[in-house]
C-alpha cells in the first residue's frame, strides 16, 4: 500500500569548505546537496508548476541516468545515498529488489521527481502488481564522515524476496546503471560486494576514473 510522502525540510548542514582531498563521492555529494536544496519545496512560498518534488531512491536499473531521463524527463539526479538494514538481490522475477537484512546496506542514487515523473515511474515499475511504494529513511554522506537523513520514495517487490537469476536484458541495463552510479560517487566497494555477484558480472564492468 502506498504511503503519503512527508514534507522534506531543507538541509541544515553547511556545504562550504569541503576540501578537495575528501573522497570523490563526498565532493559529488556536496554538489548534489546544493541541487537538492534548490529542488525541494520552500516552506516560505508555494511550489511552482509542475508541482512540488519528492525524493526517489533508485537502486536498480534506474541508476542509469539515460534510462531515468527517458522514463521521467523532468526528474533531476541529485546525490548518492545509503539505505541501511536492507540487502540488494536479483529476485526470482529476474530483476533487482531489496529485502530487509539488519546487517546489510544498499547504496543507490537520489532523484527529485515531479508528480508527473512519479506517475510515469509507477507505470514502468508495474505498481501495484510488481512493485509497491514505500517511504524510507536514506542517509546522504557528508564531508565530516557523518550522514544526513532524508525521507525518500522507494519501490519494493514484497512477493519475490528470494534470490534468482537475472533476465539477460536486465544485465545490460544494470551495467549502464552501475557505470553511472560509480561515476557519480557511489562506493565501488559496494558494487563489488553486493551487486556484481548476483548479476554474474566481473569487476571489469566497473568504470575507471578515465571512463567517467
Automatic annotation (TrEMBL):
InterPro entries: AIG2-like_dom (IPR009288), G-Glutamylcylcotransferase (IPR017939), GGCT-like (IPR013024), GGCT-like_sf (IPR036568). GO terms for molecular function: gamma-glutamylcyclotransferase activity. It comes from the Eukaryota. Its EC number is 4.3.2.9. Substrate binds at residues 56-61, 170. The active site is at 125 (proton acceptor). Pfam families: GGACT. Keywords: Lyase. Residues 56-156 form the Gamma-glutamylcyclotransferase AIG2-like domain. The keyword Ubl conjugation does not apply. This is gamma-glutamylcyclotransferase. It comes from Orbilia brochopaga.
Amino acid at each position: 500500500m502506498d504511503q503519503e510522502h512527508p514534507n522534506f525540510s531543507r538541509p541544515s548542514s553547511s556545504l562550504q569548505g569541503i576540501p578537495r582531498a575528501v573522497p570523490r563521492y563526498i565532493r559529488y555529494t556536496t554538489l548534489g546537496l546544493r541541487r537538492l536544496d534548490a529542488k525541494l519545496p520552500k516552506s516560505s512560498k508555494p511550489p511552482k508548476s509542475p508541482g512540488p518534488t519528492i525524493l526517489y531512491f533508485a537502486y536498480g536499473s534506474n541508476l542509469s541516468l539515460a534510462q531515468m531521463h527517458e522514463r521521467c524527463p523532468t526528474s533531476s539526479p541529485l546525490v548518492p545515498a545509503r539505505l541501511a538494514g536492507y540487502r540488494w538481490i536479483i529476485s526470482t522475477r529476474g530483476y533487482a529488489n531489496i529485502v530487509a537484512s539488519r546487517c546489510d546496506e544498499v547504496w543507490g542514487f537520489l532523484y527529485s521527481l515531479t508528480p508527473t515523473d512519479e506517475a510515469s515511474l509507477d507505470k514502468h515499475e508495474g505498481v501495484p502488481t510488481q512493485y509497491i511504494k514505500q517511504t524510507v529513511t536514506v542517509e546522504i554522506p557528508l564531508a565530516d564522515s557523518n550522514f544526513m537523513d532524508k525521507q525518500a520514495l522507494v519501490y519494493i517487490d514484497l512477493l519475490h524476496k528470494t534470490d534468482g537469476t537475472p533476465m539477460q536484458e536486465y544485465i545490460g541495463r544494470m551495467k549502464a546503471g552501475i557505470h553511472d552510479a560509480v561515476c557519480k560517487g557511489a562506493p565501488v566497494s559496494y558494487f563489488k560486494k553486493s551487486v556484481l555477484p548476483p548479476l554474474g558480472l566481473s569487476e571489469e564492468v566497473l568504470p575507471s576514473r578515465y571512463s567517467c
